[in-house]
Design a protein that fits this description.
- The protein is globular, with a radius of gyration of 14 Å.
- About 0% of the residues lie in helices and about 45% in strands.
- The protein is mainly β and about 120 residues long.
C-alpha cells in the first residue's frame, strides 16, 4: 500500500462480503479467535500504521478502537490480542482488518493477515 502526501487521513479495509452502507452490512462470527496475526514491513524506517476492526453496526466516523504498529523495513510478524479492540462485537465482524494512515505519506507491504 502506498499512501500519498497531502491527505488528512486515509484507510484501506477488508470487509466480509461486498462493502455496504450502515444497516445493510453483513457480519461474520470471529469470536472463537483470540488474536489477529499480520506479517508486515514498511518501505522506510519509522513507518507507523493503525490497525482496526469494525462490527456491522459501527459508525463510519473513525471512532473504532485502533492499535498502532511501528514497522521495520524487514518482514515482521505482529500479533494483536483481539481484546484490544474494545467495543467491537467479534460475533458480528464486518471489517476484518483496516489499515488507517495519518497525514504523512508512507508505504507498507502486507504478506499475511490471519486470525488465530
Amino acid at each position: 500500500m502506498s499512501y500519498p502526501k497531502g491527505q488528512g487521513w486515509g484507510t484501506v479495509f477488508i470487509t466480509v462480503g461486498e462493502p455496504a452502507p450502515l444497516g445493510k452490512r453483513k457480519g461474520k462470527d470471529f469470536s472463537l479467535y483470540t488474536k489477529l496475526v499480520l506479517e508486515l514491513k514498511g518501505r522506510k524506517k519509522g513507518t507507523a500504521v493503525q490497525i482496526g476492526l469494525k462490527d456491522s453496526q459501527a459508525l463510519d466516523n473513525g471512532s473504532e478502537t485502533k492499535v498502532t504498529l511501528q514497522l521495520t523495513e524487514e518482514w515482521d510478524t505482529y500479533e494483536i490480542d483481539l481484546k484490544k479492540f474494545t467495543g467491537t462485537n467479534l460475533k458480528d465482524l464486518y471489517v476484518v482488518t483496516e489499515f488507517v494512515f495519518g497525514d504523512e505519506p508512507q508505504s507498507l507491504c502486507v504478506r499475511k493477515i490471519q486470525f488465530q
